[in-house]
Recover the amino acids of this structure.
């Protein structure tokens, strides 16, 4: 092939980054401004990236097409939104009963995760960089508490894309409703329950005012990772220096987002409980059924989708080893601390 | 004051980084090579940092003095080694029953941790950057299993600096022995037990051959953070661009080290157990006594050391909020996953 024209190390460069999240979310959208600021600092103001909310350049769910076509150089998104193109997208973000936040980062940086996902993304002209994680999400807001799996049957539950497949298999009725319309649907009773993210983001949308039963854990999102997508042709044209700038600025933003969620969720949870939110764990029979159906779903997909099969084999082996290790010193340390009066 | 002479953005620069860890530890020493490689890439080879093991420039525990005097520009260390200068050093690294790995990063990035530690470090001419975490460490290797606090009385236990204060308060006899001499002391029975890090590093030193009882959790190191120290005068002389280079390369190395430990510990644990290691949890009465004595110790230090008091007040408030939040969705998600056959 022909070598791309390399942008010189110190060239002035102006790129655009489109996000799948609205600017009001200072966590999910804010990560892009953190990233762009670091890129600017690292290059003495020469590499400028403007950040854009959905609709400014492309719609929220048009970011993969835009990067693939090269109409925008960069995007930040939750890859599982695109499971309709190929279920493998979800493995780079979150699947029900998947890796937690630290394990996702370990799979990317130390395991084969980044390598395998980059192999997969090549067909979409995408090179990806881990850039953000919310940590384990909450299980959503329910108009009535859920005491057993039976209470979940027929329940109209607003839930993000891929998880809906499992919700359906355990008898729920997944609903696809944009963030801005959830509150009203919950208030009117058009839906019975809705999940969004966790205390900090959920508080902004005010769900606790209309559905006070707040479930945990969000078993379909144990550590969803956001990715920075870069169009491969644009990326290949960068100097080695600018490539490193993208990698390290993304690493900074990746760490910063998880830190923000950890800090802000802790404070927001107190406010929500003071405002009337009632925390409850999902019942054991529901968790067990959801786990069983998730594993069955992954077998079904493996039988049909070779991309998924290749990545999931590595992912599930890594998950087994991680959970074996984490159950000893990490879990017992955390468990002891959580039982203390601090 | 006089403004320092600023190094121009693209100047060639050659700095030295001294570590408190030997090169054989590809995790603890290796983080410095990862950092230096990223700095080099980010600057197109203009900013070169050479990395040095203890003894090459200064001894392992001479790094703070070297940075303070400005004889070396950079160091990487576990700050708790320097609690003898001021107990506050330990708060930037690990204290018994302190923050876990994610919480340490959240305290630094999102809480007041980095700001407070930088205020403290100013008197030592140090500016610090989080650069590495081992995750929760194991509780060490015991010649005989420990069934209750009574078994711990009079026990000669090789344990890192600050934790020895609590070990002593619960009846143990802390021993200060360099890493290279632990194996022989354990084999001969000069000591009864020794802690080092976790499966991956411990495997290299072969302790399982002479003391097979492997305790968890390492309650004195729930998430020890390593720091990059930079001499403030050298740092102040850098361009804004090179300052950002240090920050972002350190952030990359910070994330990379935890990922390495998570990945490598999981694999090493299996090997150790296959080699005869017998895992056991510290008994509840020992954990409870150690927790109680730790809190008493922190009160004692707060009464005498205003530096500690200022930082610990913020640290302990953050710890209480984090543990309140983590016990819900993070802990129940992890706990469920750890109980599954994966």
């Amino acid at each position: 092939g022909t070598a791309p024209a390399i942008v010189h190390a110190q060239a002035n460069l102006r790129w655009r980054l489109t996000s799948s999240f609205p600017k009001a979310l200072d966590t999910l959208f804010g990560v892009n401004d953190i990233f762009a600021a670091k890129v600017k600092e690292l290059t003495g103001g020469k590499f400028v990236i403007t950040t854009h909310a959905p609709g400014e350049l492309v719609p929220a769910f048009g970011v993969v097409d835009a990067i693939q076509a090269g109409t925008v150089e960069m995007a930040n998104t939750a890859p599982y939104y695109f499971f309709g193109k190929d279920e493998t997208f979800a493995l780079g973000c979150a699947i029900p009963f998947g890796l937690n936040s630290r394990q996702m980062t370990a799979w990317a940086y130390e395991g084969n995760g980044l390598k395998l996902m980059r192999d997969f993304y090549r067909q979409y002209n995408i090179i990806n960089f881990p850039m953000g994680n919310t940590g384990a999400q909450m299980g959503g807001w329910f108009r009535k508490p859920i005491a057993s799996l039976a209470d979940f049957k027929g329940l109209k539950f607003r839930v993000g894309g891929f998880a809906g497949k499992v919700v359906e298999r355990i008898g729920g009725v997944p609903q696809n409703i944009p963030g801005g319309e959830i509150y009203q649907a919950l208030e009117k009773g058009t839906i019975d329950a809705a999940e969004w993210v966790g205390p900090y983001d959920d508080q902004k949308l005010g769900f606790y005012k209309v559905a006070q039963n707040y479930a945990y854990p969000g078993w379909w999102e144990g550590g969803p990772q956001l990715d920075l997508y870069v169009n491969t042709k644009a990326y290949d044209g960068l100097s080695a220096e600018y490539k490193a700038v993208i990698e390290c600025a993304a690493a900074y933003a990746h760490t910063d987002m998880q830190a923000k969620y950890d800090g802000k969720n802790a404070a927001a949870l107190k406010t929500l409980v003071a405002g009337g939110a009632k925390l409850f764990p999902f019942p054991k029979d529901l968790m067990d059924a959801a786990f069983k159906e998730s594993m069955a779903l992954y077998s079904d997909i493996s039988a049909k989708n070779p991309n998924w099969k290749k990545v999931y084999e590595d992912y599930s082996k890594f998950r087994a080893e991680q959970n074996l290790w984490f159950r000893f010193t990490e879990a017992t340390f955390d468990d002891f601390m959580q039982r203390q009066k601090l």
Remarks:
- The longest strand of chain B covers residues 126-133.
- Chain B touches chain A through 84 residues (CB under 8 Å).
- Chain B has a mean pLDDT of 95.
